[in-house]
Design a protein that fits this description.
FAD/NAD(P)-binding domain, 2 domains, five-stranded parallel sheet, globular, binds flavin-adenine dinucleotide, NADH dehydrogenase activity, FAD-dependent pyridine nucleotide-disulfide oxidoreductase, FAD, FAD/NAD-bd_sf, NAD
Length: about 400
């Protein structure tokens, strides 16, 4: 029996496993000849991109619903180390170390929120990086009305105005008002702070739209500031400014899983391993990588972005290619010649840009409809339990951009 082991069941890992199972089925390889095994810390696939929303009930897809119909084996555990010479992964399963050998390995362990050593950040700041993190924030917000009166009781500061910080800040005024109720007598305050000179600067042609949408929702923009410390009741900025806030949310960017450090390759500034167009690591035989922990030149020139937009196709191709590599079949290069960004702006709508220079393509309700289609349909695996549906979705093809698809419907 030969074995393809996938580490992680996020967007990249889930689709790697399904891509591999699909190709094995196409080649009519029996499961007692080659098996696909997924190792993941939790028993579900988290639709992580929705963690700025509430409620999140529908964002956890049980892995059994998607993997069992296509005969992919699941192991719930954490991969702690990889022995490249013996082709073994060490898995922590409920505190017990176990080793599993592989013939092909697909690293898809994703990324984590970067938490620099800013005093108080780990103790007092919330985040929406994971499902449990987002749940903890919501629990805290729900008990704000019961806290004793204080200057910052209904103030939330979101620190970091990348895409996640903007999406979260745009959701918060309406969410907080819903929690506080009281006919608006207790005004809520949402502040979005960032080091950059203007909020949303990286969003190219969409930047003025973002500013307009945030202003329209009463969000206070605080560009050009740096976080010095977080306390139980607020933040301190460089230069001495203090802001009273019972809630601080850190959205300071992502870094690849530390498992990437196990490979003898030069990591990029995000901690990612470089892969070739077939998703293979250079000079590490038998190892592929996909998603946030890998860097591919996605159109032959530009590095992939840590995103589910790139993670899903990287996974489908990595799974397909791992099977082809194992069985001596020709592999397929991944090449995506389009790039879009769709940013949720809360009840105001959304903004949709096209191209690497982020040209404004659509905004408001129109873009919001596209965002809903992406978040609630496009990025989900089929949940019908049908082998045929799952294999169809796992084919190594590059989807059309979402806006084009919606217009064609
Ligand atoms: C709030 C938020 C909003 C976002 N919005 C967007 C968006 O609009 N569009 C977009 O394209 N992207 C967005 N992203 C980014 C996107 O979520 C990530 O790029 C994507 O999740 C990466 O997929 P992945 O499979 O590589 O990693 P992950 O989703 O991080 O999955 C990794 C999986 O591996 C598991 N794992 C990790 N380490 C181990 C280990 N050692 N052993 C076993 N299992 C392990 C984890 O538990 C997890 O299940 C957003 C992210 C956040 C947090």
């Amino acid at each position: 029996m030969e074995r393809i082991v996938v580490v992680g069941a996020g967007f990249a890992g889930l689709w790697s496993a399904l891509g591999a199972a699909r190709k094995l089925d196409e080649l009519r390889v029996p499961t007692d000849q080659v098996e696909v095994v997924v190792i993941n810390g939790t028993p579900y696939h988290s639709v992580r991109v929705r963690n700025y929303e509430q409620p999140l009930d529908d964002t956890l897809v049980p892995l059994s619903d998607v993997l069992d119909p296509v005969d992919v084996r699941r192991i719930r555990g954490i991969v702690c180390s990889i022995d490249l010479s013996k082709r073994l992964v060490e898995i922590d399963i409920d505190g017990q170390a176990q080793w599993l050998d592989y013939d092909r390995l697909i690293l898809a362990a994703g990324s984590e929120l970067v938490r620099p050593g800013i005093p108080g950040l780990r103790e007092f700041a919330f985040d929406v990086d994971t499902f449990p993190g987002a749940g903890k924030l919501q629990e805290h917000l729900l008990q704000l009305p019961d806290l004793p009166e204080s200057a910052g009781r209904l103030t939330v500061v979101v620190v970091g105005a990348g895409l996640t910080g903007i999406e979260l800040a745009a959701e918060l005024p309406a969410r907080l008002r819903g929690i506080v109720g009281n006919g608006g007598r207790d005004p809520v305050r949402v502040i979005l702070a960032d080091r950059s000179a203007r909020i949303g600067l990286a969003m190219g042609g969409a930047q003025p739209v973002i500013e307009e949408a945030l202003n329209a929702q009463g969000i206070e923009l605080l560009p050009g500031v740096s976080l010095e410390a977080v306390t139980r009741d607020g933040i301190l900025l460089t230069g001495g400014t203090r802001i009273d806030a019972a809630t601080v949310v850190w959205c300071g960017g992502m870094r690849a899983s530390s498992l990437t450090g196990q490979f003898p390759v030069t990591l990029d500034p995000f901690g990612r391993v470089p892969v070739d167009s077939f998703l293979r690591l250079d000079n590490v035989p038998g190892v592929f990588a996909a998603g946030d922990c890998a860097r591919i030149l996605i159109d032959g020139e530009r590095p992939s972005v840590m995103s589910c937009q790139h993670g899903r196709p990287m996974g489908r191709y990595a799974g397909h290619n791992a099977v082809c590599d194992l069985l001596g079949q020709p592999m397929l290069p991944l090449h995506i010649d389009w790039y879009t960004t769709i940013l949720d702006l809360g009840p105001w709508g959304a903004v949709y840009t096209e191209g690497w220079d982020r040209r404004l393509a659509s905004q408001g309700d129109d873009a919001k409809q596209t965002k809903r289609t992406i978040n609630c349909e496009r990025i989900y695996p089929p949940r019908t339990g049908s082998r045929e549906d799952i294999f169809k979705a796992a084919a190594p093809v590059v989807q059309a951009p979402p806006y084009t698809v919606r217009q064609a419907l």
